[in-house]
Amino acid sequence: MRIQVVTINHGTTDYADLFLRSLIAHHPDRSELRVLVLDNDSGDVQRLDWARRFGVRIRASGYSLDASVNTHGEILRDAVLAEPDCDAYLFADSDVCFVSDDTLGAMARELDSTPDAFAVEAIWANEDDTGSTSTTATAFIRSVCWYATIRRSARRSNCWACRPR
Question: Which end of the chain is more exposed for a tag (fewer CB within 10 A), N or C?
Answer without folding.
Answer: C
